[in-house]
Amino acid sequence: MADKRDYYEVLGVGKTATADEIKSAYRRLALKFHPDKNPGDKAAEDKFKEAAEAYEVLSDVDKRPAYDRHGHAAVGGGGPHFRSAEDIFGAFRDIFDGDVLSSLFGGGGGGGGRRNDRGADVGARVELSFQEMAEGVTKTVPVRRRDACGTCRGTGSRDGKAPVACRPCAGRGVVRRSLGFVAVQQECPTCGGAGTTVSSPCGDCDGSGLKAARVDVAVAIPAGIEDRMAVRVPGQGEASSRGGARGDLIVEVTVGEHPLFHRDGPNLVVEVPAPISTAALGGELEVPALSGIIGVKVPPGTAPGRRLRVRGEGLPRIDRGGRGDLDVLIVLDLPESPGRRVRDALEALRAAEKDEVGPTRKRYGDLLRDHRREADKKKAKK
Length: 382
Known about the structure:
Helix Hairpins, HSP40/DNAj peptide-binding domain, 4-stranded mixed beta sheet, elongated
């Protein structure tokens, strides 16, 4: 995750780029680095896939805001891991139809051949305890998806015969209709855009080549993930009915609460009660941390509500490494019914406080005196 380039940098656009600007930038890069234009060039192929991954995230109205807030971690380390140019065209076919790229991808308005669409993404949810979130965990997630039909081995044909090119669309998956002076292109209604048909549909999958299944998928969840964040598992979604790559599994994470810690991004906040003597005179308090019990020094004159920060005792940062901090929120511990010894000590403290005024009370006393003077002036005028 740390080696991935920023998606905006990949496409060469700013973070305020419009959807059209992002699409235009991607089309330019796809044409420049397409493997058919750069045969045998591994660097060009890698840039071609990197651009597709960046566009997959930045063109999505849900993924882009999440990426802007949390970086690559918000999309499970990145977009789908495309295996070929055909996978990429299957995912983004709409933006290439009628473009010179259509012929490079082997499809579109001017090309022939079957559509090689990606399988659908599927979603799942998993619940984590606070401790599991803090340490990272691998969870077995039950997933309902459609896999290749075992009866027809994904062909959709009952007799095992290979699909043949669809006649109405000549295997293109699209047909043209004339509406007066305008010709429009749409998905072939006979083959559903597949470009092929079977003579004898499989009875178990109704000729789709796909059948409902339930599988268990091991999902690695990074430490420090936030509540409602999603993890993307490439290639664990639905199979494709058109020979393309599998879709992805998107796992939404919910995190349980902790009886002591409250989360503030990568930082943790813990309320710690301090006796009057420690708050006034200073001392050391035992404080819970993820690593165990630690000692935290309290400076003399610590007021209730003050936060004492302990560096590096927070949660792992999933965006750039390292850990957050632990904020110790000081809460004054006052006895409801003090015993004789504490009562006597407090009475002695009250007497001594008349002679020793702290900076807060002194400032308050000055403001109170000024307010009283103004009030007396108003009364005198009446």
